Fold each of these.
Amino acid sequence: MTASQAAQAENGDWLVGNPTSLQLASVLWIGSVGLLILGLQPVLLGALYSEGHVTGDELALVATAEMIAIAIGSGVVAMLLPARNMRWKSTVLLMLLALANVWTAYAGSPNALIGARTLAGLAEGGLVAVATELIARSRRAERIGGYFVTLQTLAQCALALILALFAVPRAGSAGGFIALGIVCLLSLVVAWTVPDDYADLPKEEQFANVATVPAIAALLSIFCYFMFFGAVWAFLEPIGAQFGIDGRTVGLMVSASLAAQVLGAMTATSFEARIDYRFAITLIGIVAAINSLLLASGPGLSVFWAVALVMGFILLFIVPYQIRLAITADETRTAVLLVPAAQLFGLAIGPVAASLLIDGADFRPVPEFAAAAALASVLLLGIFVLVARRRGRV
């Protein structure tokens, strides 16, 4: 670290560098654009299915391909590329994502859709890395991470409403994806207000920093938690149908759950410093397992509603504590850069793994699998704590 960087690090909130509030807000918006699709998939992919562009199986492939591509893109950009020329990188990634969204709008086959969404996912992952690279440099990474998930969820809610009420009814799925491309192009203005170069974190032997038992256990714990959510969320409608709850009602539950996610993110941002991350992750993992088992028990309408709202709340409430877990596991903060990849891989693999257990029209194995994944997340946290204590990290 140079003398000037050392002086900047004295400025309290940042380990290295000293971005302004505007620069921080710009970076968080750029990362949020990369994750808009997480809240828009039910609207946009649902429209593709309704219009007959894809079958149910093909729809699952499109969604999974994009999720995995986001995870790969975020990991590759964060781990392999230096945090330099971030304005140009943001600009190129936004233009690439806009192009992929236009390609999606005019794709004529399921294979073309998979290709377009894979390209989109790689660009989206790169945009996520623009944000996580800066978050990793903050002394208050958990709080900044809370701001990040709050901003992205608010943006998802607002854009989902606009697409559902205006773009998709008037122009179909194509109009929805073109609108998403327009958001990317408008965000080019923001791209030129991000810090151009991030001050360096120590990254010597960065892969070795992640290839340790504490870091691997921490990332696997995060992966398993999001595998729980991905499994239940993907099959929420057929699970509801099995117990006599119609698709329209489940759709209302999804919308309400998005609002609960915003509340969860805001609550975590306010309370993250007051709650020990080990207690928070353990408690939320147990709550997740109980909610999953309630879904498997044949719940009535009121219990189903409660489960959907609780799941929405805990999904993003846990994120700041997972960031603290990753920081504790790897003091060089390299593992923090892989948190989005672990989350997204979990969201992508969860539905695929759970689908292997479905027996005909019986979807009970899905929430049972989700409960096991949530408990595995807690178990892996326990392994992390045991190993980290031996090494004097907790």
Note: DSSP finds 17 helices and no strands in the chain.
Amino acid sequence: MNRRRALQLLAALGTTGLAAACGNDTDGASGGTRGPIKIGLIAPQAGGLKAIGDEIVNGFQLFLDLNEQQLGGHPVTLITANEGNDVKSGKAAVDELLSQGVLALTGVVNSAVMLGIRDTVEKARVPLIGSNASPSTLQSVVYIWRTSYVLDEAGRALGGYLKEQLKPGSRLAIIMPDSVSGEDVERGFREEFGSSDPRLAGPVVWTTAADNPGKTAFSQDIRKALQKHPDAILCFFTGEAGVEFIKQLREAGYKGPVYAPGFLTEGTALESMKNDALNIQTALNYSADLSNTANRVFASEYRKKLSSSPTTYAMASYDAAQVLHQAIQLAGANPNPQEVNLALGKLGQIDSPRGIWQFNQPRTPQQKWYLRQVQRDGQVLSNVLISELATLG
């Protein structure tokens, strides 16, 4: 086996799967008859969440590139469908992909869309590997799996950290979008930090959940939060909304500490924030500078292909491809969606760029969480790994 092939196999399966992959490679060389399959990928192709959708496509496609465009020994046709920005468009994307006979689905950025397509996916009995954070209210599912995290876990990771970090007498203001996602993060935070902790500077300030907020969309709510004279702010925003929130927060004169789930400073959002993002601390299940074999391969190949650092969105989608690869391999030469779904339940530990993880009973990852801080690396801003926070899930 040459070095290039070994690298591909290491990226595809991690160190724990290398021996099995070598056997599969031999099968292919001897004229295996595994036929082509279709995988459907749902992601927004326009609007404020498009950048996240692009990362999800990039991560899945990178895995295919490193695995000769195959999953489980089957040549793959990856069919993408536009998630849009609401449940109606998301459901239309699912229906379109199901009509084309896909073996499995993946993607989905918007939490509301994930909730809205639940019954369609369960009724179709086609596995969906969601590759972005999903709401805690998505429960009792059989065909929906997730490789990112459940939204309240981000709040729990930050709650445990700030409970120890904030000094007595400090005042923490919380600003959240009025959405399912915001409610999940806020609830998870309070569970760990304590709802009656005197360091909380009053009730949560709920603000707009728009993906493309205007240049004054947050101004009034930011003023309301700053009237509490906080020593630190906890928030949760993603994509363009996060960029606009931080810009308006700094314009309002606040220069103090900001804490958030890591989506706030991921990918192009961090580039757009520029110096406004310096020193923001975030909790996330991934950092591009994690030192493990799987991440060294993933991050190196991602940077080589896309000339940028990988994000948690790309990583979770890469892992979605990885678990599908292993499940399809287990399902045999002529798998159907139900067999692939059963095989997903038999997977053990996944050797991932984030570190080792595995599916728990609710079909979400049990995984480590990390603290990161935005720092300058030469001329580039980067989410620098500070420490481990907790294992959740």
Note: The longest strand covers residues 365-377.
Amino acid sequence: MAQRTADVVIIGGAVMGSSVACHLAQRDDFRGRIIVVEADPVYEICASARSAASIRQQFSTAVNIEISLYGIRFLREIGAALAVDGDRPDIGLQEGGYLFLATPDKAEILQRNHLLQQELGADIALLDTGELRSKFSWLSVSDLEAGCHGLTGEGWFDGYGLMQAFRRKARSLGVEYVSARGTVENNPEAGWSVLLSSGERISTPVLVNCAGASGGTEICAQAGLDVPVVPRKRCVFTFDCKEPLENFPLLIDPTGTYVRPEGPGYICGSAPPADRDPDCTDLDVDYTLFEDHIWPTLAARVPAFEAIRPGAAWAGTYDMNLFDHNAFVGSVPGMEGFFVALGFSGHGLQQAPAVGRGLAELISTGAYQTLDLEPLSIRRLTENAPISEKNVV
């Protein structure tokens, strides 16, 4: 059996794993060998390629807001940050803003969240129903009390492009990508090793689990760590609308159903009801979700959507953290050299720049140097201290 060593092995080479690899390889204080193990080298079914790819600051917890404030700065400067041989990536960032809508029973939560967002520097406007009607004339506001609109710093982008930009930059810096499935083994004396499906074994003192949903159900289980991170299917639907609607943001209905522009049309989606949301075992599209819930909800909110032409649809997976729908990031107590970035529950693309930077700092220096990601530590699982994030979409 062939065997070799690396200073850091990262399992999962999509946006999160490639961000960690890229940030680590860019550090002046790190000179080690980095190997990324990716089971899906064409990235056909990874969440990064099938996401609605957006970024927002409209969270209710400081750490999530600060992660995305850094994220938008990174995305704006991605051409310079991830250029390779003068070739600057372009991810088509559109800062159209999120528009969160609130009925009277949820308005207080929206207002409280807005205060924190403003305090941390997010450019979010709190609007009453009159202001909503004036700014978005196509919107039905009869049941609403308020809305929050991201004036700058929120929007959507090419998620697959972001992943590939991190990957290309990492490879240019000497990071090696291996196309294989990996099985994790832990020897208390020799450290970590990854047995590849090719038969090769890689030994390493530092193992980073960025494998998405399989990172919880497979990699953590192999390492001896029980985490409530499971794959959940999320469907994205496209449609065209004959009537032009000006100034259309990424709209979040009070039900959690979302819609945003995509080229000349729109994409939309919604979490299915809890009793129709099992662990994902396929990527079949649930068209009844669109017909029974999403379309009627959107047509009631935007009357122009009563007459649409449905288009293509696809399904992907969230690595859903059933504990509190927030990521587990950082080192794992009692498991020397084992790091995780899992359970992003749909926020992985927008959080990849800050999490990649943070884990690179933690691996290199033993501490976070810029943004403190300790609130996302897996310690909160053992301490039964969930993060209370109100704006989960």
Note: The two ends are 46 Å apart (CA to CA).
